[in-house]
Automatic annotation (TrEMBL):
The UniProt record lists the keyword Ribonucleoprotein: no
HAMAP family associated with the record: Allantoicase
Family assignment from sequence similarity: Belongs to the allantoicase family.
Example GO BP: allantoin catabolic process
InterPro entries: Allantoicase, Allantoicase_dom, Galactose-bd-like_sf, RmlC_Cupin_sf, UAH_cupin, Ureidogly_lyase, Ureidoglycolate_lyase_dom_sf
Protein name listed in UniProt: Allantoicase
The keyword Hydrolase belongs to this UniProt entry's keyword annotation: yes
A Pfam match: Ureidogly_lyase
Subunit structure: Homodimer.
Organism: Cylindrobasidium torrendii FP15055 ss-10
Reaction catalyzed: (S)-ureidoglycolate = urea + glyoxylate
One Gene Ontology molecular-function label: ureidoglycolate lyase activity
C-alpha cells in the first residue's frame, strides 16, 4: 500500500514533471519514468535494442552510476519517493540515491552542479517491486536527480510531497482555489475503483479516462459517491467547473456540491443543488449561498456513480464589495427610463454556455462533431447520403396564443451590432411564445445570454439570474415567458429568429422591465 497516497506526486507528467537530461537510456524511452499509469508488462516483446520495457533502462557494465535529472511540475517540499522496478527482474537497478535543489525554473542543471543536496542516501532496490522511501520533509525544491548504481532499469519514479502554493498577488483576483498548484488537495473519496480522486485537481484536461476520477458501477437504489477537496486557502467562492472530458457513457447522471469552513463540525452548506451533467464537456455553474462566507473545503456528490476528469472551484481570497451574486441584484422596476445613467461597479460573472447549465431556461441548439458528447437522449441519424449528421428535434415550438388571434410561426432575421458596455439594464419576456435565435455565421467572439425565471410577483426572480457566453456555433431557445436580456453581441452578427407572432408583428408580445441600477456583465 502506498504510504504517500495523501501527498501530491510532484514529479508526475500530469503535473508537468519532465526529464531534462540523463546519462543513458539505451533500451527504453526514459519519459515513461514519469507516466501516470502503472508500468505495463511487455514480456515477450522485442525492439531493435532488445527486450521492451516501460520505464528507464540503461546499458550494462557502467563503472560508476547512471543518472537522470527531473524538473518537478511545481516547487514543493518532498516527504518520500516510490522507486518502482515493476517487470524489471534480473535487469533492475540494484541501488539508488536521490539529490535535489531549488533553482530558477528556466535553467537546465548539470549532473555535477554544486547545488545538489542529497535527500536520500544510497539504498538497495530489488526486482519487480515498489520501493517506498520516507524522508524528513525537505526544504522547497524543484529539481531532482535520480541516481542508480551502477546501471539497470526502473519502471516508474514518483516524488511525493506538498506544493509551495501559488496564489494571486491581488486578493480580489479570481482563481482556482482547488488547483494542485494553489495547494489544493483531495482528502478522500467514497470509491476510486477506476481512477483516483487526486486526479480531479491536476492541470489540464488529461488524455483519457485513466487520468480522471471514476467510481465503480453501483447497483443499489439511491447510491451516490463523493470526493472531498481541501482548498489551497480559505476563500470566497463564485463558480465551479466540472469537466467530464472523455467520460461519454460513464459520466455521472447528476451532481451536487457542498462547502464547509470546519469539516470537524460536519456542517455543510449546499452551494450547488443537484444538477444534471452531460458527457465529455466542461460544465460551468454559478454557486449559491457563498456571498457571506469564506470556505475551506468542498465536497462533490455524484449520483449514482461515474467519472469526472477535473474540478475547478473559482473564487477570491477576499470578498469583493462589487461582486454581485443573484440575490443581490438591484430591484427591477416596470418602467423604461431611456435617460437612465449607467452605474458601473457591480458585476455578474459570465460563464460559458452549456446545455446542462442552461436547461432551466431553455435549450442550446448545437451540433456535436463527436456524437458521444451530445446530450443523453439526443437522436442522431446519418443524412444527405452519409455526408451529414442530423440532430433531431433539439427543441419544439411552444405558443399559447388564442386561436382567434391568427398567430403564425415564422422566421425573422436580427442584425445585431455590438455595444461598448456590457450591462444588464433591461429585461424582457414573451408571454405566449418561445423564441429561437440561431447565429448565421460561425465566426466572431459570440454573444451574451442573460436570463432569469419569473418570480411570484410576475417579475424576474433575481435569485435565478444567470449570464452565459455563447459561441457563434451555438443557438439558443428561450422558454416561453422567460425573462431575458435583449440580444447582446460581442461582434456584429446576424441571427435567424423562430417565433410565433400575431399578424405582421405590429401587435407586440413583449413585456419590458428596467433595472433601477444596471449590473455590469463581467467577462
Amino acid at each position: 500500500m502506498n504510504p504517500f497516497a495523501h501527498a501530491t506526486e510532484l514529479s508526475s507528467a500530469a503535473t508537468g514533471g519532465t526529464i531534462l537530461s540523463y546519462s543513458d537510456s539505451w533500451f527504453t524511452d526514459i519519459n515513461h519514468l514519469l507516466y501516470v499509469e502503472p508500468a505495463p508488462s511487455l514480456k515477450g516483446q522485442f525492439g531493435p535494442n532488445g527486450a521492451l520495457f516501460s520505464g528507464w533502462e540503461s546499458r550494462r557494465h557502467n563503472p560508476t552510476y547512471d543518472w537522470c535529472i527531473i524538473k518537478l511540475g511545481t516547487s514543493g517540499s518532498l516527504i518520500g519517493f516510490d522507486v518502482d522496478t515493476s517487470h524489471f527482474n534480473g535487469n533492475e537497478a540494484p541501488a539508488v540515491s536521490i539529490d535535489a535543489f531549488l533553482g530558477p525554473p528556466d535553467i537546465s542543471p548539470t549532473e555535477d552542479d554544486p547545488r545538489w543536496t542529497q535527500l536520500l542516501a544510497r539504498v538497495p532496490c530489488g526486482p519487480n517491486a515498489h520501493h517506498y522511501f520516507e524522508i524528513a520533509p525537505s526544504t522547497p525544491v524543484n529539481y531532482v536527480k535520480l541516481n542508480m548504481y551502477p546501471d539497470g532499469g526502473i519502471a516508474r519514479f514518483r516524488a511525493y510531497g506538498s506544493v509551495v502554493p501559488v496564489h494571486p498577488v491581488d486578493p480580489l483576483e479570481t482563481f482556482d482555489l482547488a488547483h494542485v498548484f494553489a495547494g489544493g488537495a483531495v482528502l478522500g473519496t467514497s470509491d476510486q475503483h477506476f481512477g483516483v480522486g487526486s486526479n480531479l485537481i491536476l492541470p489540464g484536461r488529461g488524455k483519457d479516462m485513466g487520468d480522471g476520477w471514476e467510481t465503480k458501477r453501483s447497483r443499489e437504489p439511491g447510491h451516490c459517491d463523493w470526493a472531498l477537496i481541501q482548498l489551497g486557502k480559505q476563500g470566497y467562492l463564485q463558480y465551479i467547473e466540472i469537466d467530464t472530458a472523455h467520460f461519454k457513457g460513464n459520466f455521472p447522471e447528476s451532481c451536487e456540491v457542498l462547502a464547509a469552513t470546519d469539516i470537524s463540525a460536519d456542517k455543510w452548506t449546499e452551494i450547488l443543488p443537484r444538477t444534471k451533467l452531460g458527457p465529455h464537456r466542461q460544465h460551468y455553474f454559478l454557486l449559491q449561498n457563498v456571498r457571506d462566507a469564506a470556505y475551506t473545503h468542498v465536497k462533490i456528490i455524484i449520483h449514482p456513480d461515474g467519472g469526472i476528469k477535473r474540478i475547478r472551484i473559482f473564487g477570491t481570497l477576499e470578498q469583493s464589495d462589487n461582486f454581485v451574486l443573484p440575490a443581490d441584484v438591484p430591484n427591477i422596476a416596470p418602467v423604461i427610463d431611456t435617460a437612465q445613467t449607467p452605474i458601473v461597479g457591480m458585476h455578474l460573472p459570465i460563464l460559458p454556455l452549456t446545455p446542462e447549465a442552461f436547461a432551466p431556461f431553455g435549450q442550446v441548439i448545437a451540433a456535436y462533431r463527436d456524437h458521444g458528447a451530445a446530450p443523453k437522449g439526443t437522436k442522431i441519424t446519418p443524412a444527405n447520403f452519409g455526408s451529414a449528421s442530423k440532430f433531431h428535434k433539439l427543441s419544439l415550438l411552444d405558443s399559447d396564443y388564442p386561436a382567434e388571434s391568427g398567430a403564425t410561426t415564422g422566421l425573422s432575421v436580427y442584425h445585431c451590432k455590438p455595444t461598448d458596455l456590457f450591462q444588464l439594464t433591461h429585461m424582457e419576456r414573451h408571454a405566449h411564445t418561445n423564441q429561437a435565435f440561431i447565429p448565421m455565421s460561425g465566426q466572431g467572439r459570440g454573444y451574451l445570454v442573460v436570463v432569469a425565471q419569473t418570480g411570484s410577483d410576475g417579475k424576474p426572480d433575481v435569485k435565478t439570474l444567470r449570464a452565459f457566453k455563447a459561441s457563434p456555433s451555438q443557438g439558443i431557445v428561450y422558454k416561453k415567458a422567460l425573462w431575458h436580456q435583449p440580444m447582446t453581441v460581442l461582434d456584429e452578427m446576424d441571427f435567424t429568429c423562430v417565433e410565433t407572432q400575431v399578424g405582421d408583428g405590429s401587435i407586440a408580445d413583449c413585456e419590458i422591465l428596467a433595472l433601477e441600477s444596471p449590473v455590469e456583465l463581467k467577462l
